[in-house]
User: What shape does this take?
Amino acid sequence: MPLTNVQTRDVEALLHPYTPLHKLRETGPLVLDHGEGVFVYDTQGKRYIEGMSGLWCAGLGFGDKELIEAAREQLDRLPYYHLFGGKSIEPAIELAEKLKEIAPFEASKVFFTSSGSEANDTQVKLAWYYNNARGRPEKKKIISRQKAYHGVTIVSASLTGLPNNHRDFDLPVDRILHTDCPHYYRFGEPGETEEEFTARTVRSLKELIAREGPETIAAFIAEPIMGAGGVIVPPAGYFEAVQAVLAEHDILFIADEVITGFGRTGNWWGSETFGIAPDTVSVAKQLTSAYAPLGAVMISEELYQAFVEESAKIGVFGHGFTYGGHPLGCALGVKAIEIYQSRDILSRVRALAPQFQERLERLRDHPLVGEVRFKGLVGGVELVADKTTKRPFAANHGVGGICAKHLENHGAILRAIGDTIALCPPMIITSDELSQLFDSLEKALDDTEATVTR
Ligand code: PLP
Assistant: This one.
């Protein structure tokens, strides 16, 4: 098919993130024009059910009138101001208060960024700063996990544990380490029970800490559910065991709740769902339901006190972004949290979760499906070349992308993460719309099976 005018303009002008650039000039992008509820429409007027909330973020769907009105009011009142050097704005204050109220730990202060990557970058700087302030300059290493996704800045991409984010970028930087990924289906050994696998994974973390020296390790960072690594739900007991190891060595737990925050797993936080007691938390995405870019780091009183003492010595706390705490993002964050509360989004997610789970489990029998994974309203369907042996498709096969394309033909958008099809529908989705999404997915899997070579 020849490219449309807007597609041609796109390929002439844009460098797209996370896109097979070598194919885009032939296929052209899918150009979206507007959205309403859980649906988006392309420039040709075709409607798609958006089963990924964009990039795990538009949790309240598209065209929400209350959010739009909150944005309009804030733009009229004060479109920009900052929090530097003793200035402030009320939307930032109000959002920080709300975050403290709902935080999964005793949060003392909130630091705003514009994205999840900046939030995690900030986490690393804060951990380093904190240990300098406490006279432990050698306690600087951060342990992340293989298959983690924490962002794309130099340091957050280093925390990310995916080879494509490191190769060619000369990453990871020093002081960032990666421990085992807790994915039983992929990394469990033949004959090993899930419990044994969990124990081995945690033992491997212990050994890494012992090898490096616990006095050199500042923090461990983890997503409660690994999102962009393939929607990997940890085995029961994993985080409890990890936390026991960290507690022995005074290592902070940084929870990256960028995907799992704000109701996605059926609780406010993935930390609650998986029994995590974090020392500090990163958020973004559903913080504003993606109506404006905003991220945040919530910190404890202990960290804050260290920063105050250090600031008294050197004159200033030397970190901040021009748009961190942007009034538009903060006004939208306040409104989004109000909506999560007033529309009881958590109960909605819990009520829909059994249907979500049942439709995912039904896919287990499909010849292409190796494993399905889920919690609340986030899930993943891993496609394999051989169900019995779990053999994956060849790395350059692109089966996930093929399935995602068939999904578009059937009026649905989901995201292929390698060979895993991720699902993260807007939390306002109805039961009928959820059925429609899975009907499209089933058809797309059949179409893929009909054409795929193994
Ligand atoms: N952390 C997690 C868990 C994420 O999923 C993402 C993005 O997908 C990020 C951090 C990075 O956020 P951003 O793309 O806003 O920089």
In short: The mean pLDDT is 97. The pocket of pyridoxal-5'-phosphate is lined by residues 55, 115-117, 120, 149-151, 223, 227-228, 256, 258-259, 284 (CB under 6 Å). The CA atoms of residues 158 and 172 lie 4 Å apart. The longest strand covers residues 369-375.
